[in-house]
Fold this sequence. Notes:
single chain, alpha/beta, 7 strands, disordered C terminus
Amino acid sequence: MINANRVAVIMPAYNAEVTLARTVSELDRSVIDDIVLVDDASTDQTVPLARKLGLDTIRHEVNKGYGGNQKTCYRRALELGADIIVMVHPDYQYSPRLVPAMASMIAYGEYDMVLGSRILAQNSIARGMPAYKYVSNRFLTLTENILLGQKLSEYHTGLRAFSSELLSALPFERNSDDFVFDNQIIAQAITAGARIGEVSCPTRYMEEASSINLRRSVKYGFGVLGTSADYWLHRRGLRRCQYLDFNPKDMPGRPERDNAPAADEVTVPESAAGSA
């Protein structure tokens, strides 16, 4: 726990046998109450190893995709009563040592969501990020900042933390089961008026770390642009998007947010529940 807040780490896993133990070994168990691993129909020994390491392990018998995996992760963390949920990829690309820092930013009431940025205060290319990924990251982030009205250093990190109040308020089940889930949930958080913070995150680029191929990267890029356009049009009442069409729950203990949409800019039906 941190400041009386229960902390859960969730791990969306696919063929993570080689890097899982190393990732778990760097998690600070003194502040982490639960570690949940959801395996998306891996073909290696990820599940037996996760159980050996004592993780709360769920296995998908059929691959549901990266977004589908996250949905199961978040549902389980909320079921366990976590106050703060931190996603850590088990492929050891993002530093597990940042969990206490990110969770503290939420536990002490400063932020509702925290992103581990691969861009902030570091030379990403020198750290191994392929040049084409860096260029596309910068282009997509610039476009998103303009259309979503934010000043984030990047939107595409896999290391992120949420308060349970925020996560419970977001209809993440409506989001895509593919990689664009990551962008859609940020757009939802902005719609809810969440306070979003960032920390600089050292990132490893190695053979064992997961990475999507060029074809899927292009698909993801178009999905990101589509999400940004969805938000811009939805906020102005020019097009309704189901995954953004919700009434954010009141999250107690938070000051008014400057980035919260005005009531006359987002019209939400009372019947809306719960992203794609």
